[in-house]
Amino acid sequence: MSTQTKKLHVETLALHVGQETPDPATDARAVPIYQTTSYVFRNSQHAADRFGLRDAGNIYGRLTNSTQGVFEDRVAALEGGVAGLAVASGAAAVTYALQNIAQNGDHIVAADNLYGGSYNLITHTLSTQGVAYTIVNVNDLKALEAAIQPNTKAVYVETFGNPNSDVTNLDAIAEIAHKHNTIVIVDNTFAPIIFRPIEHGADVVVHSATKFIGGHGSSLGGVIVDAGKFDWKANADKYPTIAKPDPSYHGAVFADVAGAAAFVTRIRAVILRDTGSTISPFNAWILLQGVESLPLRIERHTYNAQKVVEYLANHPKVKSVSHPLLPSHPDHELFKKYFPNGGGSIFTFEIKGTQEDAWKFIDSLQIFSLLANVADVKSLVIHPYTTTHSQLSPEELEEQHITPTTVRLSIGVEHIDDIIADLEQALSKI
Questions:
Q1: Domain final position from 261, 282, 303
Q2: Are residues 256 and 365 in the same domain?
Q3: Is the residue at 77 inside a domain?
Q4: How confident is the prediction for the chain on average, in pLDDT?
Q5: Do 160 and 190 contact (CB within 8 A), yes or no?
Q6: 16 is in which domain, residue-wise?
Q7: Mind listing the pLDDT tens digit for each residue in 14-57?
Q8: How open is the CA angle 264-290-100, to the nearest 5 degrees?
Q9: Which of 128, 165, 267, 321 has the largest count of CB atoms under 10 Å?
Q10: Which strands, in side-by-side order, build the sheet including 318-322?
Q11: Are 11 and 116 in the same domain?
């Protein structure tokens, strides 16, 4: 990232990074879709240098694409990282980030308020591959430190917990993790633009670009951003995949070959090469359009969410609202610290009554769409207990504070009066 780029505001970065000049082949102002699988090498030496990581550039479409490259650079700039890697989905981004450093016999510490898919990945899928885990309330700093073991490779957290919008005390968490020479991976899907985890100690940031970044529910995608700050070489015994010779890549030491961008370079060169969760050029292009309007959309999401929270908190048919904007929320002070301009447009509330009442409310909504997505321009709703988190055990559901009367809302960018009118008419039905 250039010095000039660092000085620009996010609204400008979202429009220009990665294509500061028109397309060199066509002079197009818009980023072209490079719909190709492969690239021609100038000669045999050039091909050898590309494969040997001595010459940066395209090798094959499974690894890189110029449209994808602009998208990666732009998201990395928004997060303040040194490099990005786009993949086919948010789930792939999370999986690759963890697999990059956690192997058989290793350990992960993860927050107890994760998205259900990430929770399942860590507790059920990676665990069958020999990666142990400890689930903990990461804001309980004593419990967090007690959970970190000599073989702990990452503390994995989300900026806002899913689905209850609790706030992660990242400054304190990062301080403890780094005291034990352990990296911090942050899923910032719910807070792009309004929060930059790298400025608070994160070593790696992941996104489901399907959500706010894309913003229109039209394309799957994920992004991994490398902060470029962790000293892999000083911790080579703990992180051999990054700081010791990689036998699957001719003994390359990625900390030497790629420097500050070692983390994402190793994922691209090894994991993406071998498992192929590649984002298509077309999807990268669609998500890039989302990036350009992201700052404007976030402003409206944030404004609307605040109004909805205030409305629900005072409604007689609402038992409780889980949002740190409210002074009664245990994370209210953290929210004021980390989000002085607001945030958290995905949150839950409890209906007074039964599961049937919650379902009747959901089924009565007219503007809100009932579907398994969040962070869309359109307002969305779902019943986590029987859908997104239904694969969790009763104990796991309790741990994540999800009950039969929990309703999750994702507040869109419609006119706020229309959103509240829809909530009002649906609540009147129960």
A1: 282
A2: no
A3: yes
A4: 95
A5: yes
A6: 3-282
A7: 999 988 888 888 889 899 999 999 999 999 999 999 988 888 88
A8: 15
A9: 165
A10: 318-322, 346-351, 406-410, 380-382, 369-370
A11: yes
CB atoms < 10 A from the CB of 247, how many?
A: 8
CA-CA distance, 32 to 162, in Å (whole number)? Answer: 35
Least confident among 18-27, 55-64, 100-109, 148-157? 18-27
The CATH number of the domain holding residue 336 is: 3.90.1150.10
pLDDT, tens digit (0-9, with 9 covering 90-100), for 369-391:
999 999 999 999 999 999 988 87
Q: 153 and 54, same structural domain? A: yes
**Residue 257 covered by a domain:** yes
Look-up: residue for tokens 């990232």? 1
Q: Tell me if the bond preceding 150 is cis, omega within 30° of 0.
A: no
* Other Cβ atoms closer than 10 A to 393: 9
Q: Count of domains in the chain?
A: 2
Residue 396 CB neighbour total at 10 angstroms:
17
CATH of the domain at 124: 3.40.640.10
List strand residue ranges (DSSP E) for 42-121, in order.
Answer: 83-87, 107-111
d(CA 78, CA 225): 10
Residues 354 and 275 in one domain: no
Q: Find, among 360, 361, 400, 407, the residue nearest to 384 by Cα.
A: 407
Residue 67 CA to residue 51 CA, distance in Å, equals 20
pLDDT at 366: 98
Q: How many Å apart are CA 301 and CA 79, to the nearest integer? A: 19
pTM for the full model? 0.94
CA distances from 298 to 192, 290, 377 (A): 8, 11, 9
CA terminus-to-terminus distance, the chain: 54
* 209 SS3 class: coil
Residue whose token pair is 């940031």:
205
